[in-house]
């Protein structure tokens, strides 16, 4: 913290500033060169030495240079601010100066969010640039942090109004001047201190917005457990404050992404996991634990997520908050929303307000107009959507964290799922109106639209909630749970234990559960919709884990298989992401299910349709290999069953007949191994390796493993690349051992999804990696000596 300055008029002080001024002018005989001064200030800002603040210049010099240099009097105001903000000041004059500075910067910030920003920031927004260059940012940081200083055992205090002015000026400078936000992010003590300013409702929004921007560029994630009295701070937030606080939490609980694709490889992830084990929990994990330790935190999030529009805060406080955001220029979304409302009339609303268009300004620097308009219902809905977006994201991240089971239990207990079910039609999947609010420069179908983003975040939450967890049955209502029981009874199979254990008081109410509602909108979705991928992922997560005949039949009865086949075959879907999600869902829906294969054959009832289907499968095995795996596993099970219904399906189904052919299996096997390498394995394509292993495990069961390896060798030679494929496969299997033998979760998933014990997976890999060249089931037996390359080091430090 800088020491209190000497009196503005002291001789020593004037002498030091005069010397600095002379140096900046290049000597006593030189002419003033403002460009050189600005350059030296910039260098001082970067190095911390030389000219760094307005206080290093004489007031006379600043006055003389102000008009020709177009500094708008900002350096002089900073000189006065420095003199009136010392430790023993009453800050009254200080606040008056801040009121003079604020409009000079706010107008530029207003222009910044409404213009194309094509020109350089220094030339387009000179006021904020000069303010920062003459040390304004650092001075405001010192002023804001004065309450951290004790004099004779008493803490210094500054008013909320003054804090608000400082925060507003800082934010406007961050908006318009490059590098300011990053510099603030490096001041960790200041970032932590900002959290304490959120205790006051008067400064909450300004503080929250500044923190959000700072954390967005901060290299290292802050730790919430370092925030003083975090539990008390969060517990005292009202619901609106908590929703806005979730914007900050979104940055603090998500693992930081380097943005480098190489870091997403399994090699890199494994190396990072080893490193993390030695370092302990990550900052994101620590932050998640800190939040979950706050009494009532998850319960309040669930209430926010399921709150109806009519239950939101009254119109007066809502409009006050919107005005705060507008004045504060939080982001283009809120600004655009207000602009949209300014031009929209609603005949049904009773509330009216003056909305300020950009351009006009009052003495306090805030825009104003005399145009009056009514508050439309669409604004109320948008307000609620904006809140729910942030809350659902935080809940989704917590659901995927280390405390997943704890979060699952709380989310179920606080009835998040039935609450979302009640909001589904009126808010989450509501029909777009002509007046729906969207981002400036976008349309209602753009992925950036808040409506679209809410739907995607909702689907991601459902996916995380259902994935490999028995609480997934909370997505149904009581009648639908009874239907599952009836399906099991009719098929003469035991009921799923998780269905029996489901607490009926926590399930969805109404005529339809959330899963059924999702299926209904899924089938109506346009072919080009971006939702198709997320919808399929959410439904697939319901089927993941140990295969349940009752779950499959529940979805088959609702026409899901026919819908998927229509999208793959008749609409000839081109999106790789959507195709992959549909193939994955189709595989889970059909696996081991004779009725599903009968339905498939009934829909794909011509050779032409079947050829289109095969074309889609073969166009990208990375996308379709999970379906290939499920059909291969189903074929193996059906062949070992003695049942007329199964025999009929085996004799009639085109897909089963196609997969049963050895040349087909070998073609899949060759391509699956050929499209992946250890260095390029990711969470997305590692399934290709596991599918190739399934084919070979089933061949081993039939004592045909040597045959398959011999055929692979022949295919290598026919492609003129002897040893290339089998060496690659050998390396892949070595990695497989490293990756799976130390991760319980992954191995459990493999076992549950394939119904093959993990011990058989491990045995098969060990047999294939047997170094004995005399073994007929060892890969090395089929790699000729000159082409042997199996000891390559693929570890990543």
TrEMBL record:
<dbReference type="GO" id="GO:0006511">
    <property type="term" value="P:ubiquitin-dependent protein catabolic process"/>
</dbReference>
<feature type="region of interest" description="Disordered">
    <location>
        <begin position="350"/>
        <end position="372"/>
    </location>
</feature>
<protein>
    <submittedName>
        <fullName>Transient receptor potential cation channel subfamily C member 4 associated protein</fullName>
    </submittedName>
</protein>
<dbReference type="GO" id="GO:0031464">
    <property type="term" value="C:Cul4A-RING E3 ubiquitin ligase complex"/>
</dbReference>
<dbReference type="GO" id="GO:0019902">
    <property type="term" value="F:phosphatase binding"/>
</dbReference>
<dbReference type="InterPro" id="IPR022162">
    <property type="entry name" value="TRPC4AP"/>
</dbReference>
<dbReference type="Pfam" id="PF12463">
    <property type="entry name" value="DUF3689"/>
</dbReference>
<dbReference type="InterPro" id="IPR016024">
    <property type="entry name" value="ARM-type_fold"/>
</dbReference>
<keyword id="KW-0675">Receptor</keyword>
């Amino acid at each position: 913290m800088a020491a209190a300055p000497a009196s503005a008029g002291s001789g020593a002080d004037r002498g030091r500033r005069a010397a600095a001024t002379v140096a900046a002018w290049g000597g006593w005989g030189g002419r003033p060169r403002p460009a050189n001064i600005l350059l030296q200030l910039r260098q001082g800002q970067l190095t911390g030495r030389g000219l760094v603040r307005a206080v290093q210049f004489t007031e006379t010099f600043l006055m003389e240079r102000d008009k020709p240099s177009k500094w708008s009097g900002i350096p002089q105001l900073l000189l006065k601010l420095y003199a009136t903000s010392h430790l023993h000041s009453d800050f009254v004059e200080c606040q008056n100066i801040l009121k003079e500075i604020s409009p000079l910067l706010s107008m530029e910030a207003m222009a910044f969010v409404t213009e194309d920003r094509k020109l350089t920031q220094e030339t387009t927004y000179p006021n904020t640039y000069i303010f920062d260059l003459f040390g304004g940012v650092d001075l405001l940081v010192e002023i804001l942090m004065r309450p951290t200083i004790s004099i004779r055992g008493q803490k210094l205090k500054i008013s909320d109004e003054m804090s608000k002015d400082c925060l507003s000026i800082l934010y406007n400078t961050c908006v318009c001047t490059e590098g300011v936000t990053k510099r603030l992010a490096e001041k960790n003590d200041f970032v932590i201190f900002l959290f304490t300013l959120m205790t006051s409702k008067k400064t909450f929004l300004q503080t929250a917005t500044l923190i959000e921007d700072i954390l967005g560029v901060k290299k290292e994630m802050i730790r919430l457990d370092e925030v003083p009295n975090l539990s008390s701070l969060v517990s005292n937030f009202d619901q609106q404050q908590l929703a806005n606080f979730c914007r900050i939490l979104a940055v603090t609980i998500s693992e930081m992404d380097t943005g480098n694709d190489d870091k997403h490889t399994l090699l890199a992830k494994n190396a990072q996991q080893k490193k993390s084990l030695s370092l302990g929990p990550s900052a994101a994990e620590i932050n998640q634990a800190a939040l979950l330790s706050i009494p009532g935190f998850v319960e309040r999030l669930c209430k926010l997520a399921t709150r109806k529009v009519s239950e939101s805060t009254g119109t007066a406080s809502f409009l006050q908050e919107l005005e705060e955001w507008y004045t504060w220029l939080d982001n283009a979304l809120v600004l655009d929303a207000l602009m949209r409302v300014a031009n929209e009339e609603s005949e049904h609303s009773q509330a009216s307000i003056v909305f300020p268009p950009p351009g006009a300004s009052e003495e306090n620097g805030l825009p104003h107009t005399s145009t009056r308009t009514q508050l439309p219902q669409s604004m109320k809905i948008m307000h609620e959507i904006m809140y729910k977006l942030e809350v659902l994201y935080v809940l989704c991240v917590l659901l995927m964290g280390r405390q997943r089971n704890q979060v699952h239990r709380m989310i179920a207990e606080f009835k998040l799922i039935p609450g979302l079910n009640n909001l589904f039609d009126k808010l989450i999947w509501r029909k777009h109106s002509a007046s729906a609010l969207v981002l400036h420069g976008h349309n209602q179908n753009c992925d950036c639209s808040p409506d679209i983003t809410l739907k995607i975040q909702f689907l991601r939450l459902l996916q995380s909630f259902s994935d490999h967890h028995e609480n997934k049955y909370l997505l149904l209502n009581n009648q639908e749970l009874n239907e599952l029981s009836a399906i099991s009874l009719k098929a003469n199979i035991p009921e799923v234990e998780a269905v029996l254990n489901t607490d009926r008081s926590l399930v969805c109410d109404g005529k339809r559960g959330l899963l059924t509602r999702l299926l209904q909108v899924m089938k109506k979705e346009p072919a080009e919709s971006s939702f198709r991928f997320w919808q399929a992922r959410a439904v697939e997560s319901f089927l993941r884990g140990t295969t349940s005949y009752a779950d499959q039949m529940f979805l088959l009865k609702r026409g899901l298989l026919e819908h998927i086949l229509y999208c793959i075959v008749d609409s000839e879907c081109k999106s790789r992401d959507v195709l992959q999600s549909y193939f994955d869902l189709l595989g889970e829906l059909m696996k081991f299910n004779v009725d599903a294969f009968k339905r498939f054959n009934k829909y794909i009832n011509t050779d032409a349709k079947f050829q289109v289907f095969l074309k889609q499968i073969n166009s990208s095995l990375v996308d379709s290999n999970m379906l290939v795996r499920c059909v291969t596993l189903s074929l193996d099970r059906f062949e070992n069953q003695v049942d007329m219904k199964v025999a009929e399906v085996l004799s009639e189904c085109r897909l089963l007949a196609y997969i049963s052919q050895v040349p087909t299996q070998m073609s899949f096997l060759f391509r699956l191994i050929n499209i992946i390498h250890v260095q390029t394995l990711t969470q997305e394509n590692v399934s290709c390796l596991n599918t190739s292993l399934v084919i070979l495990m089933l061949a081993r069961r039939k004592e045909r493993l040597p045959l398959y390896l011999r055929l692979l060798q022949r295919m290598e030679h026919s492609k003129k690349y002897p040893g290339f494929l089998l060496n690659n496969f050998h390396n892949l299997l070595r990695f497989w051992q490293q990756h799976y033998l130390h991760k319980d979760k992954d191995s459990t998933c493999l076992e549950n999804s394939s119904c093959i014990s993990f011990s058989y997976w491990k045995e098969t890999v060990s047999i294939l990696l047997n170094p004995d060249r005399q073994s007929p089931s060892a890969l090395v037996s089929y790699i000729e000596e000159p082409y042997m390359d199996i000891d390559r080091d693929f570890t990543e430090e």
